[in-house]
Amino acid sequence: MITVYKVTTSPTDGKAIMELRGKSTDTKPITSYMGYYIANGSTFYEINTGKLFMFDADAGAWVEQ
Known about the structure:
mainly beta
């Protein structure tokens, strides 16, 4: 289960920089989540591994930091 910790929405394009938290077994969203389009710089923290990922919108992928 993924938890949304924080959402900052851009007033110009409606995309959201999101801070997401969940387990490594959760499927990380790559286009949108809970009605928000995911923007560059969004983060996903895996609570069971301690790994942090940042979203690369051009590649449509989460990159481990």
